[in-house]
Amino acid sequence: MNGIALVTGGNRGIGLATALRLRDDGFSVVVGSRSGEAPDGLDAVRLDVSSPESIDSAFADIEERFGPVGLLVANAGVTRDTLLMRMTDEDIDLVLQTNLAGSIRLARRAMKGMIRAKSGRIVFVGSVVWALGSAGQVNYAASKAGLVGAARSLAREVGSRGITVNVVAPGFVETDMTAQLSESQQSAILGGIPLGRYAQAAEIADVVSFLASASYITGAVIPVDGGLGMGH
Q1: Is 230 among the domain residues?
Q2: N- to C-terminal Cα distance for the chain?
Q3: Catalytic residue (one of 27, 124, 130, 140)
Q4: Contact 154, 107 (CB under 8 A)
Q5: pLDDT category, 232, cuts 50, 70, 90?
Q6: Contact at 8 Å (CB) between 186 and 143?
Q7: 228 domain-assigned
Q8: How far is residue 121's CA from residue 187's CA, in Å, rounded to a whole number?
Q9: For the domain that residue 74 is a member of, what is the CATH number?
Q10: Residue 117 · residue 139 · CB < 8 Å
Q11: 211 is in which domain, residue-wise?
């Protein structure tokens, strides 16, 4: 596997922590973001994962400047949370197109170089809600559950080429958004997590880093959720 890594949504949160960790691991990291910019001196490319044309253009740019992508971390995603009876068609379409269809298209485009190299790693960043469910997130949970089926199907397609495909499923992660929750909301959430705390973004990055170096794990869903979703 070559050392070129593409991390989508890598300009903040889990994506940024992952990009920085992979850079520390020795990868040449390119961050995909809508702005085409990234912090901390990371290389970046303009990428809107909901647009097939943008995906093709971004990969062409990366291949011209750095070489073919050997590690894809499909992290970019959106939420449009509300009860299903209030959810608009746009809410449904945007989340499924970005989180699920976008990740599938990214993987399809990455396959070109990986199949030629007979090596590669694909990591989809999912969520604990893929199996646990979450009221008000029918669209989001469906998109993350879809990633599991996509990853396991693709793992069977390309395993003979030395390419692994896995899903990392975070639970609640300490972010600016969770910090804004009320004390009662935070107590309710933390009460359901056996470890009694949120994850740090770096803890998600640790698992992505592990999968990047693991040659005999594929089609796996690895929870990083403090035990929230155990048993699913």
Answers
A1: no
A2: 32
A3: 140
A4: yes
A5: confident
A6: no
A7: no
A8: 37
A9: 3.40.50.720
A10: no
A11: 4-223
Q: How many CB atoms lie within 10 A of CB 46?
A: 14
Rama region for 196: left / alpha / beta (φ>0; ψ in -120 to 50; rest): left
Model confidence at 220: pLDDT above 70: yes
- Calculate mean pLDDT across residues 4-26: 95
Coil/strand/helix, residue 122: strand
Residue 216 bears catalytic tag: no
Handedness of CA 124, 127, 132, 138 (dihedral sign): negative
Closest CA to 208 of 84, 232, 217, 190: 217
Q: How many domains does the chain have?
A: 1
- How confident is the model over 142-187, as pLDDT tens digits? 999 999 999 999 999 999 999 999 999 999 998 766 776 778 878 8
Contact (Cβ atoms closer than 8 angstroms) between residue 99 and residue 36: no
For 115, residues 6+ apart whose C-beta sits below 8 A from its C-beta are: 158, 161, 163
For residue 232, is it within any domain?
no
What CA–CA distance (Å, rounded) separates 144 from 72? 17
Does residue 229 lie within any of the structural domains?
no
